[in-house]
Amino acid sequence: MGKYDVVIIGTGPAGLGAAFELLARRPDLALLVLDKNQFSSGGLRNDCKMNFSWPIGFPDCCWTKETAEPYLRRVEDFLEPIILEKRNLSVYARRAEKIGVSLLEIRQSHLGTDGGLELIKRLVARLEGLGAEISLGERALSLDAEARVLRTETREIAYRDLVVAPGRGGFSFLQELMSAASVGFADNAVDVGVRIETRREHYPIVSDYYDPKFLFPKKTRTFCTNSGAAHVVQEKYEEKDGSAWYSVNGHAWSVAAGAAGTSARPANGLVNFAMLKTVTLTEPLASGQDYARMLGIQAALLGGGRPIMQRVGDFRLGKRSFRERFSGDLYDFEPTLPSATPGDISLCVPAKVMRALWNAMKLLDTIVPGLLHPSTIMYYPEIKLYANRPVFRDESFMALPGLYLVGDGAGTSRGITAAWASGLRAADGILARL
Q1: Which of 33, 63, 340, 398 is most buried, judging by how many CB atoms fall within 10 Å of its CB?
Q2: Do residues 223 and 127 share a domain?
Q3: How many whole angstroms separate alpha carbon 307 and alpha carbon 297?
Q4: 92-139: per-residue pLDDT in tens?
């Protein structure tokens, strides 16, 4: 049986943040980092958009401004980001304020999907140089928290401290682990929404502010804006019976967004971003994950196994979109996710959610006129599964003696920088107990 001082599950920003901090302060530690994928995963692979201002990414159930800001400075000192310039925000902010909308001014960095992959390569090599053992393609299966033994597909591993940072993709795995270890948790919130794709000329604010953060009434907000060489992708979620459903997401490549380097993908003149509504469930339905799964499965049923897309022009007329009529005339650009099924999203978006999303889109069109051009596409569903809220025993996200749960999957963050910060916070707790 292998034995380590610290084992970390997950090579996303939360896991990397914990690993670097532990080895920087205790280079003598025997540290193992596992990932079920054959590559380092997590948010750094997905457009690598980073926010360095409170409160973006920091759930208020786990963080205060006073706690978060020192960690944000530590994250920034380590990653050394190039902060993007912002211009003309007062114009948009005044328009927003008049109609009850807030525009947050956030310090941002953007590497793009290609830049994020290069960053991951450098970080993994650097971590190995510090003495960490990294095992990719090794799936964690179960845990004996009392004996402090982790079982994977290939071996049993003894540890003194275990940091579990599986990200949103490991949401279900984390729930199973917590249930088996008798760790209490809540799962009653989920973000549900659409991804909007339009021409850059219809959302020109991105020339002044790369990822504008608007907060609307009814717990609705913009999220994850991509422009330049931007495209929409689908993400697969598998069910235990072998069936699957898809959520959508957005990416962009670095050069088109203004970052340094070269890219094989030229700018396409498009923008995409998510419009999300937070849904908080109460008794008797308590599982946000189960609710999200049902929404995703319903969308897959109506979309023939794929996400659904609909032009704003069709939606306003109360008509579904058809593939043969999806382009031409005012519908003047091709969707970047052509595998999505043209249809009617109102058949599967819950009415309360759809009203909140459409109201927010109309408000946003007042602030940035042009968004609701008939050609604008709405892709559904975009669902964020980071609603686990474990019961922690201390401020370092310790759920049981020797067991720390961090990152988006554990509900301690919503994004790269906050995930990295939560890994640092767990590392601080581990080091304080050594």
Answers
A1: 33
A2: no
A3: 10
A4: 999 999 999 999 999 999 888 888 888 999 999 999 999 999 999 999
- CA–CA dist 156, 4 (Å, integer): 11
- Smallest Cα–Cα separation from 156: which of 38, 8, 3? 3
Is 98 part of a structural domain of the chain?
no
Closest CA to 225 of 340, 108, 336: 108
Radius of gyration, CA atoms only, the chain: 22
Q: What is the pLDDT of residue 23?
A: 97
pLDDT (tens digit per residue) in 4-54? 999 999 999 999 999 999 999 999 999 999 999 888 777 788 778 899 999
274, two tokens:
């998510």
Report the percent of the chain where pLDDT is more than 70. Answer: 96
Beta bridge partners of 309: 342, 379
Which residues in 346-432 belong to E strands, given as ranges? 377-384, 389-390, 398-400, 403-405
Average pLDDT, rounded, for the chain: 91
Residues 344 and 422 in one domain: no
**Structure tokens of 375?**
């050609």
Question: Could you tell me the sign of the dihedral formed by the alpha carbons of 343, 315, 273, 355, in that order?
Answer: negative
Question: Distance (Å, rounded) from C-alpha 215 to C-alpha 194?
Answer: 15
Bridge partner list, 228: 270
Q: Is the bond into 284 cis (omega within 30 degrees of 0)? A: yes
Residue 188 corresponds to which amino acid?
A: N
Same domain, 249 and 305: yes
CA distance 350 to 90: 35
Q: Calculate the dihedral angle through the C-alpha atoms of 291, 294, 300, 305, rounding to the nearest 10 degrees.
A: 120
Same domain assignment for residues 181 and 211: no
Q: Tell me the DSSP string of 34-62.
A: EESSSS--SGGGTTTEEE-STTTT--TTT
